[in-house]
Amino acid sequence: MVTPLCGERWFAVLPDCDAALAAFRRLRHAACHVVRHESGRPWLLGCWEESQARIVRTGPVRLALLGTCRTSAAELLLRADKLSTAAQAEDAVRGTAGCFTLLASVRGVVHARGAAAGARRLYRASVDGVAVVADRARTLAWLTGAGVDMAQLAARITCLESTPFPLDRAAVFEGVRAVPPEHAVHLDRSGRADERRWWQAPPQDLPLAEGAAGLRQALREAVAARVRPGQVWGADLSGGMDSTSLCFLAAETGAQLVTTTLELSDAANEDAGYARSAAAALPRGTTCLSFPIAELEPYLTGLADGGEPDDEPALKRRDLAQQRRIRAVLREHGAERRLCGQGGDHVVLPPECHLHDLVRHRPAAAVRRLAAFAALQRWPRGATARCLADRRGHGAWLAGQAALLARGRTPAAAPDLGWGPSMTPSPWATEYARQATADLLRQAAADVPPLAAARGPHRWIYQAQQAGRVAVTYEQYGMDLEMPFCDDAVLEACLRVRPHEALSPWSYKPLLAAAMRGIVPDPLLDRTTKGDASAEWHAGMKAQQPVLAAWADSSRLAAAGLADRGALRRAWLSPGTLPAACGPAVEAALAAEAWLRDVETHPVPDYLEEHPRDRDPVP
Predict the structure, then answer these.
(1) Which of 234, 325, 507, 546 has the fewest beta carbons under 10 Å from its own?
(2) Are the CB atoms for 434 and 369 separated by under 8 Å?
(3) What's the chain's Rg over C-alpha atoms?
(4) C-alpha–C-alpha distance, residues 96 and 90, integer Å
(5) Are 304 and 543 within 8 A, CB to CB?
(6) Residue pLDDT, tens place only, 174-222
């Protein structure tokens, strides 16, 4: 079995028809493996690690799980033998822990889906008249000759907050469609595609204690799906509750841990102190490594080096040099993969907008919490009352935000209780960028339903899928990170809990604290603070000023009419003069600029270069 190099993991799924052979012949030179339909035509091809794949064949059934899962190939074969239609593939993996893509071919009909939490994604496009599915938008863009969709790129840099739903899930190449995480693609034998919903959010009806027990079980199974007794595993130990919980769960399995802690420069940051306390409580034999930030490469090191672009703008170079150094040290200690707490904040903490739902359904429970949050966040009474009185559905709310954005108006200061963050235009977004984004929002307002019927669960799923987007970037770049909080089962366990019990103005992460009580020492669960690396980020931006000045002068975003060159220069060279809320938006614009430059210099994906492969004759 051929093992792909880091960054070369990819796959494509083809329908069972002769017209798909043209796409197969164009991709075959880069594929390590090919799996065929019952007919003998190619179904699945690409490069993946054997340890990250479960692929079985029985009669007319082909079933593949690509990613992390606990199910053995033998067990999967038994389940596959019971399938009579592709649509039944979900039955074969129900209850399977891990994070994986599910692919099935039953008598030539294909079922393909990623992960509901967004950590495994799929795209589709028409190639030579037939539908082709792939895990990378770049694969399909290369096959179809698609250019960058500038309107979708505009949506990535126009709002100060994160890219709004549903634009966050769109592909940024013309003619390439991103499959929504909760949808599966069906390919028939004529090469046509349609999408069907495979995942629904669970009801939010469990009290905290019962929901915490479910989360504890989901996290245990997520870690056990990856970690085996006696294995050497790396694990982030930041001092935060998320990574600390994973370390203790991994130790519980009997793994030999090598933990890594970043010591940041801010003397007021308590993360390193909590990490040391956690390390002292971990089993004897744990190797605890500390990395003073001053001894590592600064943030944004290698910004101008270029490289293979992701499927969408993602500033992976923010800490890429640091991550490579840490990975190298872990490998010297025998740890090939590392547990990471990415996604914990997103899945265990409901958004504050659940208070909007709570006022209507449980007003007595809402009053005290609203008062506490208003005092904590300093919400103005009038603005809070107006937000709570706003009964607009998702479409009407989205259309209203589009109108404000098109006019360049900054929404009035108000609590964050809407269907999404208020869409404040960034200082560098041009009128063209604002209008293009507003047009996309208006289209979505008419056509795209929310992720759930109420604001709270809709926003909760949305923020979880933002964490999933980050997980995809690290996975495709071969960073060997495992992020159990981004597993679907973990997200579902969190969503089952009554949100007003999972988010409290009086305690920090009550759901995770209750889930880990008895596993993680109480002082680590009772923490109420959270550190950040803002000082390191500003230092990295300052160190990169020569690059940033040159990029501002030759900005691809400005050339495309998406950003004002002068405003972009001010944001990149003097980010400290902007409000703190602008930080993520500055980084988003920088990511989009870097991505455009990388797309220019890498018209052909690196992973589609000639590759050694298994024997499989081309038909």
Answers:
(1) 546
(2) no
(3) 24
(4) 10
(5) no
(6) 999 999 999 999 999 999 999 999 999 999 999 999 999 999 999 999 9
246: closest CA among 350, 348, 120? 348
Distance between CA atoms of 444 and 395, rounded to whole angstroms?
8
Cβ contacts of residue 180 below 8 Å, gap of 6+?
A: 166, 169, 195
Residue 35, SS3 per DSSP? strand
Q: 439: how many CB neighbours lie within 10 A of its CB? A: 16
Q: Is the pLDDT of residue 1 over 70?
A: no
Angle, CA of 336, 342 and 348, to the nearest 5°: 135
Rounded distance between C-alpha atoms, residue 348 and residue 358, angstroms: 18
Beta strand pairing call for 481-482 and 338-339: parallel
Instruction: Could you list the beta-strand ranges (E) of 302-367.
Output: 338-339
Within 427-512, strands assigned E span: 481-482
Euclidean distance between CA atoms 226 and 246, whole angstroms: 11
Collapsing DSSP to helix, strand or coil, 531 comes out as: coil
CA–CA separation, 297 vs 500, rounded Å?
Answer: 42
Interatomic CA distance for residues 308 and 303, integer angstroms: 13
DSSP label at 302?
A: T
Q: What is the mean pLDDT of the chain?
A: 93
DSSP strand E in 107-239: where? 109-113, 123-127, 130-134, 177-178, 183-187, 193-197, 232-236
Q: Quick one: the chain helix, strand, coil %, rounded to 5?
A: 45, 15, 35
pLDDT digits (tens, 9 = 90+) for 232-289: 999 999 999 999 999 999 999 999 999 999 998 877 788 889 999 999 999 999 999 9
Tokens of 521: 């020492």
Task: Return d(Cα 275, Cα 455) in angstroms, integer.
Answer: 36
Res. 619 pLDDT band, cuts 50 70 90: very low
Q: What residue has token string 């306390």?
A: 277
| Integer Cα distance of 373 and 394 in angstroms | 24
Taking residues 329-357, report their average pLDDT.
Answer: 96
What would the two tokens of residue 508 be?
Answer: 């920090």
- What is the greatest pairwise CA distance in the chain? 71
| CB atoms near residue 570 (< 10 Å) | 16
Phi-psi region of 607 (alpha: psi -120 to 50; beta: other; left: phi over 0): alpha
Q: What is the mean pLDDT of residues 529-544?
A: 87
Look up residue 213 and give its amino acid.
Answer: A
Q: Name residue, tokens 């940051």.
A: 269
Rounded alpha-carbon distances, angstroms, from residue 532 to 263, 268, 354, 589, 615: 11, 10, 26, 21, 50
Strand ordering across the sheet containing 42-47: 33-36, 42-47, 10-13, 130-134, 123-127, 177-178
